Amino acid sequence: MENAVYWKGRQVGIECAGRILWFTSAPPEAVVAYGTQRSEPVSVEQSMLARNLVTTASYR
What we know:
- This protein is α+β, with helices and mostly antiparallel strands.
- The chain has one domain (2-53).
- Helices cover 27% and strands 28% of the residues.
- The chain has helices at 28-33, 44-53; strands at 2-7, 10-16, 19-22.
- A three-stranded antiparallel beta sheet has the order 1-2-3, with no helix packed on it.
């Protein structure tokens, strides 16, 4: 299950399986506050996950 990571009222990443995938727009202070670091570039698989989380259902 994925969970949104918020910093000062703004979503800055996604937590999944104990790892936080930081958005590129996440401020460094948020990364430091959560006690993690940006360790590796986001892979295609991870970006697809992030994109799918914000997809809304179409209504007819």
